[in-house]
Amino acid sequence: MKPAHRIEFFRRLQADNPEPKSELNYATPFELLVAVVLSAQATDKSVNLATAKLFPKANTPKAILKLGEEKLTEYIKTIGLFRTKAKNVIALCQMLIDQHDGEVPRTREALQALPGVGRKTANVVLNVAFGEPTMAVDTHIFRVGNRTGLAPGKDVLAVEMKLEKRVPDEFRLHAHHWLILHGRYVCVARKPRCGTCVVNDLCGFKDKIEEA
């Protein structure tokens, strides 16, 4: 995709959704961190249903530690991999208290040192909670990056690195949200909705489905 086309690509996504937001419900950086950890291999909807019950009872590291792993498991048992996630959240809370005075750290390195936090999770927290222009590449962004020709790569890190180089500066803060939402609702995996896509003519996908 040519540089001029990349600018127009994001300009149109911006016009379609000027202020994109995470679809996870949260009120603090800590709530966001927990929600993103829980969202691995799970839908935002399922996480929101669980945290709507959990956060009113426990939404700080100390409160979740007081709750304990067994009770935490009860709150999140409708989410995939809930037992592993419960262990990680408990360990994460302990580490936040021991090493960060109970606060969510603001560097990728410190975030990735937390149990259950990988590069994508760290990038989401840095972007959404702290306003850093990071690229949190999930399956949706990986697909959109490769399918459109915007940022082709053999794995998520390769796509992230391409996006870091290719997303115009004025669009970097919200780029990953635009791409996630585009992949989630328009450029879907099986039958992309090319007929209603605002960047259809800029996309390099050869097998476009033109029906609206």
Describe the overall structure:
This protein has 212 residues and is mostly helical. The protein folds into 2 domains: 3-20 and 135-202, Endonuclease Iii, domain 2, CATH 1.10.1670; 29-128, Hypothetical protein, domain 2 (Endonuclease III, domain 1). The chain is 56% helix and 0% strand. The protein has 11 helices and no strands. α4 (61-67) crosses α6 (82-100), α5 (69-76) crosses α6 and α9 crosses α11 (172-185). The radius of gyration is 18 Å and the shape is elongated. The relative contact order is 0.13. The mean pLDDT is 94.
Count of DSSP-assigned helices: 11
Poorly predicted runs are none
Total separate domains: 2
What is the CA-based Rg, rounded? Answer: 18 Å
SSE string, helices as H and strands as E? HHHHHHHHHHH
What can be said about the biggest beta sheet?
Answer: none
Q: What is the CATH architecture assignment of the largest domain?
A: Orthogonal Bundle
Principal-axes geometry comes out as: elongated
The N- to C-terminal Cα distance equals 24 Å
Highest CATH level, the class of the largest domain:
Mainly Alpha
For the record, what is the CATH homologous superfamily label of the largest domain? Answer: Hypothetical protein, domain 2
The proportion of strand residues reads under 5%
Number of DSSP strand runs: 0
Percent helix:
55-70%
- And the CATH topology of the largest domain? Endonuclease III, domain 1
Class based on secondary structure composition and strand pairing = mainly alpha
Output mean pLDDT: 94
